[in-house]
Amino acid sequence: MDVKKLILLVGALLVAAVTAVMAKNMFSGASAPQAAATPVVPAGPEVLVATRSLPVGTIIDAEALRCFRDRRHPCPGYHDATRRADA
Q1: C-alpha dihedral sign at 60, 65, 69, 75
Q2: Of 17, 41, 67, 77, which one has the greatest count of Cβ atoms within 10 A?
Q3: Under DSSP, is residue 60 helix (H, G, I), strand (E, B) or coil?
Q4: Is the pTM of this model over 0.85?
Q5: Domain residue ranges of the chain, discontinuous segments joined by +
Q6: CB-based contacts of 42: which residues, under 8 Å, 6+ apart?
Q7: Cα–Cα distance between 7 and 15 in angstroms, integer?
């Protein structure tokens, strides 16, 4: 056998052995930690929704719109037309 072929064969066996050891360590390592569930906080965009039909040319006032991210979490700091001022 030629010396060049023998060196290539030994090099290939060395690379294969290193790859096998790395794969064994990767697959036999500790499993990933389990994630705990956390409460969902609405992080979506704030959406303005019309409270009544708004035909073309309607002047929009505070009672015409309301803001919310989720039905359970209205946007803070914005007038909600469904609440009365005296309540």
Answers
A1: positive
A2: 67
A3: coil
A4: no
A5: 1-30, 39-87
A6: 69, 70, 73
A7: 12
